[in-house]
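Researcher: Structure for this, please.
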Amino acid sequence: MRHRRSAVTGTLKPVVQRDRTGCGLASVAALTGRTYAAVKREAAELGIHVSDPMLWSETRHVRRLLARAGVRVGRQRDFVAWESLPARALLAIKWHREKTGPAWHWVVYVRDAGGPRVLDPKRSLRHHRRTDFGRMKPKWFLPIGTAADRV
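Model: Predicted structure, C-alpha cell format:
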C-alpha cells in the first residue's frame, strides 16, 4: 500500500474520532494528513481494531501506524510543562486505571506559526482546537518528527 508523505511538516488539522476507542486513530490521521476512515482501514489491515482497548492503553498500535506513514516517534517522556514540549507531540491526557490496566485519551500537540494548541479528537467537543492548557493534565508524551528531525 502506498502512502502519502507525512503531513507532520505541514499545517495540522484536527480529525474527529468516530469510535469510542478511536482517539489514537484520529491522532494518527491528524499527524499524517489523512482521513479517519483511511487510517481505520489501514489499521484493520494490520489487525488493529477499534474494539481493542490497547488503542488507549499501549503505544504499540499508534507507533506502528505512524511508522508505516513515515512519521518518526521518539521515546516516551514524562510531561513537565507545555513550554518544554517539542513542536509536535502525541500526548496522553485523562490518564487513569481501568480493570485491564492504564488507559488514556490521545491528543496531538502542535506549536507552529499559528501558536501552540492541542488537536483533540473527542467527538463531543464543540471545538477540536484547544488552547485551554490548564484544563488538560498530560501524564506523558511521545515526540513526533520526520526523518530529518531528532526526536
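Researcher: Any notable elements?
Model: Residues 107 and 120 are 5 Å apart (CA to CA). The longest strand covers residues 101-112.
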